[in-house]
Here is the input.
Amino acid sequence: MIMKDSVVFQELVEEALLELPEEIRSKMDNVALCVEKKPTAEQLRKLGTRSGGILLGLYEGVPKTTYGRGFGMILPDKITIFQESIYRFAGNPEAVKELVRKVVRHEIAHHFGFDEKQARELERRSRKKK
Here is the structure.
C-alpha cells in the first residue's frame, strides 16, 4: 500500500529539490514550488489535457531565459507537483519517490527555459548516466 500522506509527499518534493546540485539551486529565483492534490479543470484546459488525463507537474511563469529589461516586479513562477496524479501513475513507494524526483527536475528545467522536448532529452541523458 502506498502512503498517501500529504506531509510525507511534501517531504519527498523538498528532498527532490535538495538533491539538485547547488549550482542549479542557487540559480533558481522568483519561483515557488507547490504541492496540490490534483490539477484544476482550468489547468487541464490550458494545456489541452482531457478531463481525467494525468498531469504530474506544471510550470507556470516566465522562464529565466526570457528575463530581461522590463521584467522587474513580476509575480513568482509557480511549479506545481500533483500528488494524486503521481500516486495514480506510480505503483509503489519507491516508484513514487523516483517519479517525484523526475517531475521536480522536469518542471525546474522549464524554469530555466527548456521546452518540453528539451526537458525530456535532459531526463533521458540523466537516466543514461546512472
Remarks:
- The first strand starts at residue 31 and ends at 36.
- The chain has one domain: 6-129.
- The mean pLDDT is 86.
- The longest helix spans residues 93-111.
